[in-house]
Specification:
This protein is of the alpha+beta class and 108 residues long. It has a domain of 75 residues. 36% of the residues lie in helices and 25% in strands. The chain is globular, with a radius of gyration of 16 Å.
């Protein structure tokens, strides 16, 4: 479904294959997953692309995202990140997307 870059971390969220009312929330950093979904049952699969995971009810994920948006105070996302390595990764993503958008700047 999506990648979410939030101040507290990065997660990938997809539909659960066997539980239609649940989502599989995956992360490369367990601290990010626990920060965003502290009450979830977390588990790890060392050989997976996203090794840290949680199966979470869709309504819980939607509430977390909605609460995040409603409580957002920053006006610069990158400056809201306290983890140095994560900050640099987000800056790299921003930079790549900036380059992607350069040829699309003209209004047609």
């Amino acid at each position: 479904m999506m990648w979410l870059f939030l101040s507290g971390g990065f997660v990938s969220i997809v539909a659960h294959r066997n539980k239609p009312d649940h989502l599989l929330v995956r992360s490369r950093n367990m601290a990010h997953l626990k920060s965003l979904f502290p009450n979830a049952k977390h588990f790890s699969l060392e050989q997976a692309d996203y090794p840290h995971r949680a199966v979470i009810d869709r309504t819980v994920v939607a509430k977390m995202i909605g609460d995040y948006v409603l409580n957002m105070k920053y006006d610069n996302f990158k400056n809201s990140i306290s983890e140095s390595n994560y900050f640099h990764v987000c800056h790299d993503v921003w930079s790549m997307m900036y380059e992607y958008g350069i040829p699309l700047r003209s209004v047609k």
